[in-house]
Design brief:
This protein is of the alpha+beta class and 247 residues long. It has four helices and four strands, in the order H-H-H-E-E-H-E-E. The protein has helices spanning 2-83, 92-173, 178-191, 219-227; strands at residues 196-202, 207-210, 232-233, 240-242.
């Protein structure tokens, strides 16, 4: 009678252990799904930030282009006004000074023209970069919308499975004596996985191994497991042990 009772308890404990391992896998899957969804959101945010940065860069370039254009016009006006003084020159020394200053102003105008053109080229390149960034963002949003929908559906499926397994676990635990259930919970909290494990047996070599921590089980302990008069625990990891093909 005692043996049958212990065997029944072992079977229930084994079922709970299987459920707990399944729940751990499900929780890991949920964590991975949440992480993936966050990754998708972060990738979109990164693209949006990049686009905003490009737009700000273009605004700064346009502002600088307008400033250069204004400076160029002022310098051109200065050159034009200075060149108009040519007819008022009185001697060769004034002419030489005039030519030197005129060449200097022309060089400044030329330099400003080059810089202004380069800045306009930068603005055009920024416009191209912005267009590409907008296209990339749009394509990525469309692709990620599909992925997000799939991930959301998968997450809901896993959450339903978790709820089912948790409800199933409650039913099985309720069939155990309270002290046995509490002892199982303490062990499970410590070892996490494989709370109830079979013994790996090689009778010819008299080798018996706990498949939870892979420590040896004595022949006496093995015989106690076979008799099933009480629950037997691994001396090393405290997992609940059972004989293969007996539960």
């Amino acid at each position: 009678m005692q043996t049958e009772k212990i065997k029944e308890q072992l079977e229930l404990l084994r079922q709970i252990s299987i459920i707990d391992d399944a729940l751990l896998d499900l929780f890991s899957r949920l964590e991975a799904l949440v992480a993936k969804r966050n990754e998708l959101k972060n990738s979109i945010n990164g693209l949006k930030e990049n686009l905003e940065s490009l737009k700000n860069k273009k605004k700064e370039q346009e502002f600088e282009a307008r400033r250069m254009e204004k400076e160029l016009k002022e310098k051109e006006t200065e050159l034009s006004n200075f060149s108009a003084k040519f007819h008022s020159l009185k001697n060769n020394r004034e002419f030489q000074q005039f030519k030197e200053q005129q060449e200097k102003l022309r060089a400044e105008v030329s330099d400003l023209e080059d810089k202004a053109l380069a800045m306009l080229d930068s603005v055009k390149q920024s416009e191209i970069d912005i267009q590409r960034a907008e296209e990339t963002l749009k394509a990525t949003e469309e692709r990620l919308k599909i992925e997000e929908k799939e991930l959301s559906a998968e997450q809901e499926r896993v959450e339903r499975e978790v709820a089912y397994q948790q409800e199933n676990r409650k039913k099985v635990v309720s069939l155990l004596p309270n002290d046995v259930a509490k002892k199982y919970e303490r062990i499970h909290a410590k070892v996490k996985r494989k709370t109830v494990v079979p013994v790996d047996v090689d009778v010819d070599k008299e080798r018996f191994i706990c498949t939870g921590c892979y420590m040896s089980i004595t022949v006496q302990e093995w015989n106690e497991i076979l008799r099933a008069e009480e629950l037997i625990y691994c001396r090393q990891c405290n997992r609940i042990l059972f004989a293969p093909d007996t539960v």
